[in-house]
């Protein structure tokens, strides 16, 4: 146990009040101490003088060993060292310590150191939530081929990345959506051929590591529409956050990318459509559709922030420039980022990568959950500007493998019962559990002697004062009740220096004789301070009709318990079969109080817990006698029952790729209790077929031959076309030519004609 120093106030004081015991003293103030020295007070001096500051008691002769003053301290219950390797380890440790017990003196703070270091290759789950209103038509086309790019970008961050997809528009109710039946079926413009019916939110694809599956499923999506500009995005984010078992969130860094080009409706807007029931923050996915969209109002931003924090989800608002200021919600959602989309969302991968690497993953914000009302917590850190105490611890630019340290200061305002709360970095499932116990009792270690001589043989010494036996009073138990005078006897009938017999009785020989109540109630008690009516009511019945009222306290009948006997001692409603609360909770008042994460009524489901498919090492060693647990499989996997079958009948079995690229196929069922599982393993591994070399070589030769033949045919065709073109041109020129009847001057005919000049035709 480590005792820590605290800064003293400028002046330590102990208030002067009515104090009769050590317990009263230490509850008076943080600097009050009690002197348990037996003869510290003089005869007739009140015991209140034993209560003062430590320095004042020392000055009056009280030794250090006789001063009772509980201090605040803490004990580490779990202190596993931080992991230095890869996040692929089965259980990486990123914060230290993991569990602490605080012993707090009210008003006296205690400080403890809290260390955090991000491991490399920590799993990342990314759920893409897209607005499918008609204005996002161009964006949808780009998103349809986004899977490979997203997985490639996430692959630079971790080798264990998964992506999922969901979409939203708005509530199918006026004035948000046209409720004409034809318009509900086709809310898009008339000339739009592909349009899906109006809807609020639908979960399309659970988280998967298959980029092709993402592209295939998202490519089947089509645009829809609504009437007004703000969309129902908060409904969608709420369902994606609380429906963890359906979305498939794992033990990982959880990112939710919210893509839209418009603002959002918030709590109260549902009144416009006569939707008055507040959002209950519960999962209502029926066949992947938000079934309460038209019955419940939108959630508030504060309600959404709470659910995101509870489920360790970090939103990235990928929005257009015109609405970016609307989504600046860091004050309410500290682990959120806003990125500006281009007009057709072609920059979304770069936007997500920047938001995660530069801001979300590098900024560590430590805060608390489930903080009890009377406990206060402040933080400082060894980071820049971390020396000023604040309600959160913040460190920026924290890279992978870099260790940061926070100092957590916890103070209790008053005495309380044992309580617990958690401290941890936002966006991570790992938390440090802190159990708080207030130091409000004195531990004086007095001998157990009910007839101590220091008390006249009629009492026991407790922290320096006498607790007298029956019929004896006084500082040293020196007075017997029968030896008192009338005044003393009358004073004996006063309770806490109040009225005699509470004004409800007569004092006779130092004892109260109580009157009868005017309304028929029975008045009784040492000072007539009790009656049989001043008890809690349940369903307007005294002690719920299941008990008897005794001096302000209900004495319950058999089978009932509680302050008002309103708690039935039964586990009938906690049973399912022979199991009570599935072995993961306690049945109190016929209601299961489950372990953290598990849900009522029977503590069967744990939406935020890691998938049981993660029992990979046990499956490999139990089913195939291989893997890292091969040597000590029986001891490490003692809580895992298994059987090997030829083929599985489960519709969605677990699949895991081994180091030899073969897939293990198995199903996991969680049994009653903690970490108890029943595993069914398919005997045959699914291994990829080796490449067919003959087919590859033959295909290559055939391809080369085919390409050569094709080139020859193309060349022949070109030559033929060229010749045909020349021939046609010649024919056209020939038709245009014009020939004359002139003789060839070089040609001489074979006939010669001679004319006789003397010949006359006369």
From TrEMBL:
<feature type="disulfide bond">
    <location>
        <begin position="383"/>
        <end position="395"/>
    </location>
</feature>
<feature type="region of interest" description="Disordered">
    <location>
        <begin position="65"/>
        <end position="91"/>
    </location>
</feature>
<dbReference type="GO" id="GO:0007159">
    <property type="term" value="P:leukocyte cell-cell adhesion"/>
</dbReference>
<feature type="disulfide bond">
    <location>
        <begin position="606"/>
        <end position="609"/>
    </location>
</feature>
<keyword id="KW-0812">Transmembrane</keyword>
<dbReference type="InterPro" id="IPR057243">
    <property type="entry name" value="Integrin_I-EGF_CS"/>
</dbReference>
<feature type="disulfide bond">
    <location>
        <begin position="509"/>
        <end position="543"/>
    </location>
</feature>
<keyword id="KW-0325">Glycoprotein</keyword>
<feature type="disulfide bond">
    <location>
        <begin position="613"/>
        <end position="621"/>
    </location>
</feature>
<feature type="disulfide bond">
    <location>
        <begin position="22"/>
        <end position="32"/>
    </location>
</feature>
<feature type="disulfide bond">
    <location>
        <begin position="463"/>
        <end position="501"/>
    </location>
</feature>
<feature type="disulfide bond">
    <location>
        <begin position="594"/>
        <end position="603"/>
    </location>
</feature>
<dbReference type="Pfam" id="PF23105">
    <property type="entry name" value="EGF_integrin"/>
</dbReference>
<dbReference type="InterPro" id="IPR016201">
    <property type="entry name" value="PSI"/>
</dbReference>
<feature type="domain" description="Integrin beta subunit tail">
    <location>
        <begin position="613"/>
        <end position="692"/>
    </location>
</feature>
<comment type="similarity">
    <text>Belongs to the integrin beta chain family.</text>
</comment>
<dbReference type="GO" id="GO:0009986">
    <property type="term" value="C:cell surface"/>
</dbReference>
<dbReference type="GO" id="GO:0005178">
    <property type="term" value="F:integrin binding"/>
</dbReference>
<dbReference type="GO" id="GO:0008305">
    <property type="term" value="C:integrin complex"/>
</dbReference>
<protein>
    <recommendedName>
        <fullName>Integrin beta</fullName>
    </recommendedName>
</protein>
<keyword id="KW-1133">Transmembrane helix</keyword>
<dbReference type="GO" id="GO:0007229">
    <property type="term" value="P:integrin-mediated signaling pathway"/>
</dbReference>
<dbReference type="InterPro" id="IPR036465">
    <property type="entry name" value="vWFA_dom_sf"/>
</dbReference>
<dbReference type="Pfam" id="PF00362">
    <property type="entry name" value="Integrin_beta"/>
</dbReference>
<dbReference type="GO" id="GO:0019901">
    <property type="term" value="F:protein kinase binding"/>
</dbReference>
<feature type="disulfide bond">
    <location>
        <begin position="479"/>
        <end position="493"/>
    </location>
</feature>
<feature type="disulfide bond">
    <location>
        <begin position="589"/>
        <end position="633"/>
    </location>
</feature>
<feature type="disulfide bond">
    <location>
        <begin position="243"/>
        <end position="283"/>
    </location>
</feature>
<feature type="disulfide bond">
    <location>
        <begin position="35"/>
        <end position="51"/>
    </location>
</feature>
<dbReference type="InterPro" id="IPR033760">
    <property type="entry name" value="Integrin_beta_N"/>
</dbReference>
<keyword id="KW-0401">Integrin</keyword>
<dbReference type="GO" id="GO:0033627">
    <property type="term" value="P:cell adhesion mediated by integrin"/>
</dbReference>
<keyword id="KW-0245">EGF-like domain</keyword>
<keyword id="KW-0472">Membrane</keyword>
<feature type="disulfide bond">
    <location>
        <begin position="530"/>
        <end position="535"/>
    </location>
</feature>
<feature type="disulfide bond">
    <location>
        <begin position="25"/>
        <end position="62"/>
    </location>
</feature>
<keyword id="KW-0732">Signal</keyword>
<dbReference type="GO" id="GO:0007160">
    <property type="term" value="P:cell-matrix adhesion"/>
</dbReference>
<dbReference type="GO" id="GO:0030593">
    <property type="term" value="P:neutrophil chemotaxis"/>
</dbReference>
<dbReference type="InterPro" id="IPR036349">
    <property type="entry name" value="Integrin_bsu_tail_dom_sf"/>
</dbReference>
<dbReference type="InterPro" id="IPR015812">
    <property type="entry name" value="Integrin_bsu"/>
</dbReference>
<feature type="disulfide bond">
    <location>
        <begin position="440"/>
        <end position="444"/>
    </location>
</feature>
């Amino acid at each position: 146990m480590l005792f820590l120093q605290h800064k003293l106030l400028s002046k330590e004081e102990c208030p002067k009040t009515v104090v009769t015991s050590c317990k009263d003293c230490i509850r008076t103030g943080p600097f009050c101490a009690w002197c348990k020295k037996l003869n510290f007070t003089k005869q007739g001096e009140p015991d209140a003088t034993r209560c003062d500051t430590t320095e004042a008691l020392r000055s009056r002769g009280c030794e250090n060993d006789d001063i009772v003053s509980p201090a605040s301290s803490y004990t580490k219950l779990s202190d596993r060292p931080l992991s230095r390797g890869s996040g692929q380890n089965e259980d990486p440790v990123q914060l230290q310590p993991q569990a602490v017990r605080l012993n707090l003196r009210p008003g006296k703070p205690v400080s403890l150191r809290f260390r955090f270091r991000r491991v490399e290759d920590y799993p990342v789950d990314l759920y893409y939530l897209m607005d499918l209103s008609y204005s996002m038509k161009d964006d949808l086309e780009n998103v349809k081929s986004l899977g490979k790019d997203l997985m490639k970008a996430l692959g630079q961050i971790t080798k264990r990345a998964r992506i999922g997809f969901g979409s939203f528009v708005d509530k199918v109710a006026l004035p948000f959506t046209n409720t004409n039946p034809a318009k509900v079926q086709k809310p898009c413009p008339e000339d739009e051929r592909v349009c899906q019916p109006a809807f609020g939110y639908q979960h399309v694809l659970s988280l998967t590591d298959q980029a092709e599956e993402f592209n295939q499923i998202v490519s089947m999506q089509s645009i829809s529409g609504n009437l007004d500009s703000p969309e129902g995005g908060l409904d969608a984010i709420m369902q994606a956050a609380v429906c963890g078992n359906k979305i498939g969130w794992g033990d990982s860094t959880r990112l939710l990318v919210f893509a839209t080009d418009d603002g959002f409706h918030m709590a109260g807007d549902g009144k416009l459509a006569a939707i008055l029931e507040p959002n209950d923050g519960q999962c209502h996915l029926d066949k992947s559709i938000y079934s309460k969209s038209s019955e419940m109002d939108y959630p508030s931003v504060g309600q959404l922030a709470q659910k995101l924090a509870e489920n360790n989800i970090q939103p990235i608002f990928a929005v257009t420039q015109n609405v970016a200021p609307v989504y600046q919600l860091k004050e309410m959602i500290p682990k959120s980022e806003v990125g500006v989309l281009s007009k057709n969302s072609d920059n979304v991968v770069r936007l997500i990568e920047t938001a995660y690497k530069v801001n979300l993953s590098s900024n560590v914000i430590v805060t608390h959950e489930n903080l009890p009302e009377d406990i206060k917590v402040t933080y400082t850190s060894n980071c820049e500007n971390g020396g000023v105490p604040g309600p959160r611890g913040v460190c920026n630019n924290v890279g992978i493998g870099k260790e940061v340290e926070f100092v957590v200061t916890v103070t209790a305002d008053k005495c309380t019962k044992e309580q617990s709360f958690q401290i941890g970095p936002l966006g991570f499932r790992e938390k440090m559990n802190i159990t708080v116990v207030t130091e409000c009792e004195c531990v004086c270690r007095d001998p157990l002697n009910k007839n101590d001589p220091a008390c006249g043989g009629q009492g026991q010494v407790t922290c320096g004062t006498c607790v007298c036996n029956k019929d004896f009073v006084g500082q040293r138990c020196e007075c017997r009740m029968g030896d008192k005078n009338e005044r003393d006897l009358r004073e004996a009938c006063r309770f806490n220096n109040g009225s005699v017999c509470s004004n409800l009785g007569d004092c006779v020989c130092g004892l109260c004789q109580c009157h009868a109540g005017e309304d028929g109630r029975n008045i009784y008690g040492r000072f007539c301070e009790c009656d049989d009516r001043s008890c809690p009511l349940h369903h307007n019945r005294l002690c719920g009709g299941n008990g008897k009222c005794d001096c302000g306290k209900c004495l319950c009948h058999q089978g009932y318990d509680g302050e008002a006997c309103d708690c039935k001692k039964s586990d009938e409603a906690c049973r399912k079969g022979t199991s009570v609360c599935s072995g993961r909770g306690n049945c109190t008042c016929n209601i299961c109080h489950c372990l953290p994460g598990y849900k009522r009524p029977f503590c069967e489901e744990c939406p935020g817990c890691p998938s049981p498919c993660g029992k990979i090492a046990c499956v490999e060693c139990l089913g195939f006698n291989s893997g890292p647990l091969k040597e000590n499989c029986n001891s490490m996997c003692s809580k895992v029952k298994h059987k090997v079958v030829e083929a599985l009948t489960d519709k969605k079995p677990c699949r895991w790729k081994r180091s030899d690229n073969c897939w293990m196929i198995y199903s996991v069922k969680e049994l009653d209790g903690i970490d108890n599982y029943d595993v069914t393993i398919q005997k045959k591994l699914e291994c990829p077929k080796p490449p067919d070399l003959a087919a590859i070589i033959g295909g290559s030769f055939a391809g080369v031959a085919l390409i050569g033949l094709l080139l020859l045919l193309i060349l022949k065709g070109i030559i033929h076309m060229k010749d045909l073109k020349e021939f046609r041109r010649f024919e056209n020129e020939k038709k245009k030519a014009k020939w004359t009847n002139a003789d060839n001057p070089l040609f001489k005919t074979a006939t010669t004609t001679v004319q006789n000049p003397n010949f006359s035709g006369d």
